Amino acid sequence: MTIPELNLLTRSAISDTEWSDSRWHMRNRITSATKLRRWVRVTPEEEAAIIESTVKYRWSVTPYYASLMDPDDPSCPIRQQAIPASSEMGEYPGAEVDPVGDTIYRKTNRIVHKYPDRVIMLITEACPVYCRHCTRKFHTTNREGSYFRDGEGESFADDMRYIAEHPEIRDVLLTGGDPLSYRDDKLEGIISQLRAIPSVEIIRIGSRFPVLLPQRVTDEFCEMLAKYHPVWLNTHFNHPKEITAEAAAAVDRLLRHGIPVGNQTVLLKGINDSVATMRRLMTELLRIRVRPYYIYHCDNVTGVSHFMTTVDKGLEIMDGLQGHITGFGVPQYVVTTTIGKIPLVRPYHRLTREGMQLRNFRGEELLLSGPAYPTADPRPAE
Ligand code: SF4
Predict the structure, then answer these.
(1) Full domain range(s) for residue 298
(2) Which atom of ligand 1 is nearest to the CA of 176?
């Protein structure tokens, strides 16, 4: 079925068979204000931004993700992540297309080797939804971008050879774009080649499909992955609204096939930059058995800078998580740079002449002293 021209289509207008089929969602992706109008009341500002920004940036939204949007509220966190804004075209001081240094560390068409024991493999530039805050906006979304230029279809021989010739690489992260944009058989072809390299211990997949189109995470897909264990999957929930029954079911399918699921959140102004939202997000993730892994400080990426908030805000949020929710529900807050990911933490201890002064999440203090604890001014031995 093709989606009928309706004002404000609801989920119930679509059959269960179609709704549960990821190919139906991909065929019916929203790529114009006219199509978006079937799901939300598009504001004049949104419509103008769609027209202005789609000259430069790709845009598409799955019907599933559109169904999570508040039809009447343009500040809805799903709308802000998925619908272009005029700010994307603004000029921001220091903004760069690659502030994290992918291009510095790119060794082959697909391999970025930044850390000693692991690499990322950029296998595609395609995504089901082109998130407006994407760190790789140049690669995934910019119409004149892509690190591949025309090379996405090139053979993987050089990439696999690079990994095989560097036995220190024990961990390969497939990313993109979104690797699940490929069909299962194509993905299996890549994963099976990696598994044939003896030094590759773990394979990780970075995918936002559990959030943007969880129907793509089928039992068949999970069975395929389970043949190549140990396989891990990291996804990218940014707001509690994204944790739906469909998303929970996709996570459950992965877990039942032995694939641990972690989450990376990007700190986004106006979307999740409050203690209350982040607490709710992290505890909801734990409820569906997803382990929060990172909160990324939003990078100063061209076309994304308007989502940046301050590091002070990020630290305030971390103070609102640490001690307040289950310990393993507290992710690490990091800033990604050309020299790697740097953890950002407000210290929970300071050194005094007497020993180590600790502060807990309530602001209560305690001194630990004795030979095991450092002091600010160690006395020279007599
Ligand atoms: S799915 Fe991931 S890679 Fe694709 S646009 Fe969204 S954030 Fe970027």
Answers:
(1) 102-343
(2) 3
